[in-house]
From TrEMBL:
Keywords: Signal. This is DUF2884 family protein. InterPro entries: DUF2884. Residues 1-24 form the signal peptide. It comes from the Bacteria.
């Protein structure tokens, strides 16, 4: 056995476990396509979209086509009502997509770590970690009979960051001892059998990237679509603001592309 192959075998698998997590997290899995900011607290129910400042409801879109300003209905033309309806429907349609992206991002990241573990460690612990992170994300963006609340402030597309960072750190910390043990066991068996072929180990990082890269690109495309739709909402806001003097402050969201 070549000395370089032995050294590579000792360090490669643990390093690849970490690099698979890094690849999954930093190279587009948890998307960073745009920053979305809510200008005020927004509460969405099956019948209402409420814009709340402090303890007061400033705007209330009711049944997708009627809007109230501080409790008083604003009389609009049919074309302006159509703007309100479009804004309401498109806002509602975004939420399931955002939740789907969050959950899919976590799934791809953990698949990358699973590929990193491969034959060198026990991946069963990942299952419970993945389930835990998904559960927390589902709670964060839960559809409770159509009720959602978003606080004032930044709502970045990298919203899973904190949960994913913590989960990946825990998984790597717990899995690393078994991975190192698995590598030593594999090397011991290889030495005993006179096996000097470590091609599979040397190609592991490329295999990890190949496995998750295509899915990451698809997820980035979804995130781009979400960002574009939010930009459309911002454009609709400007049209709504011009429709009536009482709608001049109808300013819910802002979006900035990172790329």
């Amino acid at each position: 056995m070549k000395k370089s192959s032995l050294v590579f075998g000792l360090i490669a698998a643990p390093a690849l476990l970490v690099s698979s997590a890094t690849f999954a997290h930093n190279d587009g899995i948890v998307t960073e396509q745009c920053d979305v900011t809510f200008k005020n607290k927004v509460s969405i129910t099956p019948e209402h979209i409420l814009v709340i400042k402090g303890n007061q409801t400033i705007y209330d879109i009711y049944n997708n086509d009627t809007i109230f300003y501080k409790g008083e209905q604003i009389k609009l033309t049919a074309s302006d009502n159509a703007l309100i309806s479009r804004f309401s429907n498109e806002t509602r349609s975004l939420i399931p997509t955002i939740t789907e992206i969050a959950l899919e991002a976590v799934g791809i990241a953990f698949d990358g770590i699973n590929a990193g573990l491969g034959q060198f460690g026990d991946s069963t612990k990942l299952d419970s970690k993945l389930a835990n992170v998904k559960e927390r994300l589902e709670e964060k963006f839960a559809n409770q009979d159509g009720h959602y609340t978003f606080e004032e402030g930044s709502f970045n597309m990298d919203f899973a960051d904190e949960e994913l960072d913590k989960a990946i750190g825990e998984v790597v910390e717990q899995a690393l001892p078994s991975v190192i043990g698995g590598v030593f066991q594999m090397l011991g068996e290889a030495i005993a059998n006179g096996d000097t072929d470590f091609t599979e180990l040397e190609n592991l990082e490329a295999n990890i990237e190949q496995e998750i890269e295509a899915r990451a690109e698809l997820l980035e495309e979804k995130a781009d679509i979400v960002c574009d739709k939010v930009e459309e909402l911002v454009f609709l806001e400007k049209q709504i603001q011009a429709a009536h003097p009482d709608l001049a402050d109808f300013d819910l969201i802002d979006v900035k592309h990172k790329n």
